[in-house]
Amino acid sequence: MFSQVLLMQVVIAAGVAVLATGLFLAPLSKQLDQEAMRRALAIAETTAQDPQIAEGVLTTPPSRNGPVQEEAERIRRATHAEYIVVLDRNWVRWSHPTASEIGRRVSTDPRNALAGQEVMEIDRGTLGRSARGKVPLYDTDHRIVGAVSVGIAYDSVRARLINAIPGLFAYAGGALAVGALAAWLISRRVQRQTRDLAFSDISALLAEREAMLHGIREGVVALDRGGRIRLLNDEARRLLGIGDEAVGRTPDEALGAGRTTDVLAGRVTGTDLLTVRGHRVLVANRMPTDDGGAVATLRDRTELEQLGRELDSTRGLIDALRAQDHEHANRMHTLLGLLELEMYDDAVEFVGEVVGDHRATAEQVTEKIQDPLLAALLVGKATVAAERGVALWVSERTRLPDRLIDPRGLVTVVGNLVDNALDAVAGTPHARVEVELRAEHRTVVLRVCDTGPGIPEDQRELIFTEGWSTKKPPAHGKRGIGLSLVRRLAERQGGSAAVGGAAGGGAEFTVVLPEALTEPELQPAPPGRSAGTAAVAEEEAR
């Protein structure tokens, strides 16, 4: 490849040098002809202004020893002209370098000069091809008495041009040498940058790259150093809903304002950033490149939502059933004791109270929280809280539709905050945890309050640091992960997580998740309550 590039560049440099030389020589020849004709005309004008010439034509016959011939030859020798011919109005020569031609008529038509016009031309006469200048000859009364024709041999002009060619080729050779050196340096640099790959190898790599980019099931968007889109693969076009018209434009121009645009433009940074484009939930990552640009990858999370909902519902059901195990055992023991004591009325009343309390709890949660994952989670957490002697309340202001973009992420946030709140109030009198979930257009606001000891003001930022905890770490793991995960999940969605003091004492955690809900018209028809949530409600209704 190196030799091919060098050879091509040398050939190009040589071609340019030859072309430049030819383009220079063509006008030079014309310029030299013009200079020769102007020089011939100037000599003719000088000769015609000599008063001896006009007077000799009027007063003497044409003769090889006459005053006109002598004066014309003197001027010819002084100016190195090829010939100076003086003629009268009858076209008869009065002077000529060849004496035998004196007294004869000229071979070329002098009528324009005899009519008072100046003539410049290149023509062939008795002395061969020459550059000519012809002017009228005036007497003292300014009457035309003849004409003066001066010729400069064209061969002498061509000789000047030929003499100039070696110098021109010397310049052209120098330019070619410089071009060859530059071509060699460029070829060496290209060789290093391409790792000495042949053209066929580079072509194959480009073809493989195109096939890979357009074949993978992940969107790829490449941006140049000016922030303009320079490449989109097929999956990126599908996920973003744009086409080739976006190439060469910035994300703001191609997509409009929004979180997706901010992520692609680099105004929002991080890994695995959640964003929404139309009805699709995307996970975006952006990586800067060495040339000042960036490459962003997009993964579609929309198709995984249904599977995630079912998996998390099953997991929530298992946790709820595990937490209810001891509680049901205690209740069955109590019921067995009442029956053995033959306290049948009290047994019926006890069963009714237990069933009624559980039915009310499940119905209240599912009425306020329409997302099945969160509903199942809170029902399970309520059972765990009751087992630990803590009252778990769902605020009356709670209203959450089933339009969550990332329900699993919100389940993680709510689960961690509720678990921390239960740990904080465990063993305290009148222990209570309150959860509030409300939707504000597309933003979800979560508030978890407890009646525990609260968090000192100087430690309210430290608790979100990974590994920091006031609790003793267990032998099988470590603490200080939950709250750090909560803040990372919130910030990944462009939101925030903060802690303050509750009104009645204790701590109050607030998480704000902007663009956490899809638009109502983009939400697909709800498939109904999941099997896990239905099973919890049915189990508690028995």
TrEMBL record:
Signal peptide: none annotated. InterPro entries: HATPase_C_sf (IPR036890), HATPase_dom (IPR003594), His_kinase_dom (IPR005467), PAS-like_dom_sf (IPR035965), PAS_fold (IPR013767), sCache_3 (IPR033463), Sensor-like_sf (IPR029151), Sig_transdc_His_kin-like_C (IPR004358). It is a multi-pass membrane protein. GO terms for molecular function: ATP binding; phosphorelay sensor kinase activity. Pfam families: HATPase_c (PF02518), PAS (PF00989), sCache_3_2 (PF17203), SPOB_a (PF14689). Its main location: membrane. The chain crosses the membrane at residues 6-28, 168-186. Residues 52-72, 515-542 are annotated as: Disordered. Keywords: ATP-binding, Cell membrane, Kinase, Membrane, Nucleotide-binding, Phosphoprotein, Transferase, Transmembrane, Transmembrane helix, Two-component regulatory system. One of its GO terms (biological process) is regulation of DNA-templated transcription. It comes from the Bacteria. PROSITE patterns: HIS_KIN. It is found in: Cell membrane. GO terms for cellular component: plasma membrane. Its EC number is 2.7.13.3. Residues 406-517 form the Histidine kinase domain. It catalyses: ATP + protein L-histidine = ADP + protein N-phospho-L-histidine. This is histidine kinase.
